[in-house]
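Lay summary. Proteins are chains of building blocks that fold into shapes, and those shapes determine what they do. In this project we predict the shape from the chain. Here is one chain we studied, written as its sequence of building blocks.
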Amino acid sequence: MKFGPIPIETAEGAVLAHSTTAGERRFRKAHRLSAEDVALLRAAGISEVVAAVLAADDLGEDAAAQTIAESMTFRGIEARSAATGRVNLHAKAPGIFTVDAAIIDAINAIDPAITIATLAQHAPVEKGQMVATVKIIPFAVSSALVDAATKICAGGEIFAVNAYRPVRVGVIQTVLPGIKPSVLDKTLRVTEARLARTGGRLTAERRTPHEIAPVAEAAASLARDNDMVVIFGASAMSDFADVVPAAIERAGGTVIRAGMPVDPGNLLVLGMLGGKRVIGAPGCARSPKENGFDWVLDRLIAGLDVTANDIAGMGVGGLLMEIPTRPQPREPLPAKSQLKVGIVLLAAGRSSRMGGPNKLLALFDGKPLVRRTAERALGSKASGTIVVTGHQRERVRTALAGLDVSFADNPDFTEGLSTSLKAGIAYLPEGCAGVMIVLGDMPGIASDDLDRLIDTFRKAGGNSVVRASHDGKRGNPVLLPRSLFPAIAHLEGDTGARHLVEAEGLDVIDVEIGAAASVDVDTREALEGAGGVLQD
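And here is the predicted shape, written in a compact code that computers can read:
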């Protein structure tokens, strides 16, 4: 592949490196030029373009990424169709991600043109979450390099999502004088919540004195009828021959490991009894916050073996207690009614079809259209509104003066819609479960319309795409769940939410809101027909 400026006369078949405009025609980045395209560019006075010229043995970026992805062996994962040189791979079910780092490293060492990125080893994942991505950096790559990657992929399973299983768990809590029943009751609630997140079920509880014999008897009994036994000691393990490890051995089991290099979680005990796993829970497991107990429990529920060597290898990354920003997935999820939705209001466009004036500054009932739209966004149930500016950013900001909105400037607005989506979502607060993309040029949208979309999103649990419609036809706004945010970060060119919704394959719920969903004002005639007055 050759890359650089080339004369327009020899540009047929070349792939554009940058968006290019010829009169009213705009060619996107990565567009392959046809003879007709070349004629239009030449007529517009363009003498050369920066482009990539593919050699006979080159594969285009999409074909190369697709070929590599199709050569991989994986479980519990689905690969999406290639777009912009990228294939994203997503979990089919919640579980634990595992990856063969040697295969990934070998592919990434072939050539910088071919890259694969994945989640960390043993990362917990949700259904639909992206776990890996294959990305071709240039517009094309030699087929010999792609062949080298596919040969490495033939070496075995490259990664997997090990789905959680509906395990049955029996719990033992030992008791010493001074232990309040409320502490034991809370421990049960926290444990039930932990198991519910992974599809497990707490089936029985025994409360015994903090002594070896009664704990051993309870463990043997629970192991017969359950898939796993968890023991919460009233006193922390202070020696490898203390009550919990000694009780496992007294019951006829074996202790695999006592103690782990994860803090909090140091005092965990892992054993085997009658073919079932027994975990002596550290004291920190009484709290919903992430600790070493979670790491072992989740892997076992996902059907993965945990050995003494596995636990010994958890030290790097195992210092959890001093990292207050570390995610705590075991905390209860917010109620559906509390799921936060942010609004990204797109106001960066050039209104090119208007022939000059900025449609967002047109007056509707004496008020600039962009201010009218922002006020309706602020009047909805959304947690906040971010306005993306670009073209005539200062005039747009002036039109919004005094409103409680945040601004995200997009200096690359001429490169297409994707740049504004990325700029807006980058400003969203961490706690947002979803984002509603609101176009600035839809004068019929009301706060009640936005609330109907938000209510539907919350009712669906915050995992679906919710889209406004009119007479059964899709329209705007569109509400996207947080699981799509990583994919949005990879969009390029004039690609928007519609493309993303179709590519990611999530559930889509259409909400009928009437004509407001389809009325925008892209042309002077449409704007004036909707009651707007253009301003110079």
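What the prediction tells us: The longest strand covers residues 201-209.
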